[in-house]
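Dear colleague,

Thank you for sharing your sequence with our group. We've completed the structure prediction you requested, and as agreed, I am returning the results in plain text so they can be pasted directly into your records. Please verify that the sequence below matches your submission; if there's any discrepancy, let me know and we will rerun it promptly.
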Amino acid sequence: MDTEQFNKIKSGKGLIAALDHSGGSTPKALRFYGVDDAAYANLEAMFDLAHEMRTRIITSPVFTGERILGTVLFQMTMDREIGGKGAAEYLWEDKGIVPFLKIDKGLATEVFGSQLMRPMPDLAKVLDAAKAHGVFGTKMRSFIKLANEAGVNDVVDQQFEVGRQVLTAGLVPIIEPEIDIHSPEKAEAEALLKASLLAALDGLDSGQQVMLKLTLPEVDGFHTELIEHPNVLRVFALSGGYAREEATARLARNHGVAANFSRALVEGLSVDQSQAEFDAALDASIQSVYDASTT
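Please find the predicted structure tokens below.
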């Protein structure tokens, strides 16, 4: 594990940029960026356009390690080049930004009000590739819709099962049990999730540390016990579908939690903008999310 990267994530000020849209979410991300479905004829062309979008963001002069602690990459992005070198290597060597890799394969069918992650049969191979590219940690997402204790516990059990494999490989996992912001039982689900997470964290060895990426809570300061847990390196929040203004307002009220935003971070960026317009919009977005992450 890279000590410099570890220290940056542990004590640095800033946010994590989630640029890890996978096959299922890429069309929506491109539409959000102003690229219509008619702009590409197949998956290969779609991923080429997505890589162009990500490259434009990452190579922008305002996208640096001064405000951005880390960036989560899609595996196909990690396997491609930015600036003449691997994307993960470029992030760390040229930008001072810690690279992470999305490792989940999407969500399974809903059971007990939650969606577990699909099987990851090639996980060991993916983790080896990540280490070869200098990746620091991983991210995997589950989805909780209802306050069903069995469903919530299943999500946490699976997250920590995979998390242990990631730790064994020498990487740091970002545990992401997202709660649906539109759930009619959101607050109740958050209470169940915190209890389950605390129990799972207590089951880790003393030297094992994970990161948490959680939905912005209904009760301000709700994640404090998790932030203070000795097995938690850092707690981040996902935007979860909230617009940037709402997401940053909620985040600012949760001290000690930083952003790991995707859509809320790139909100307002467009393929039709000039480079100066694009950089200005990205700069303003990063600054607003940074400010909310450092309260």
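Summary note from our side: The CA atoms of residues 66 and 151 lie 39 Å apart.

Kind regards,
the structure core
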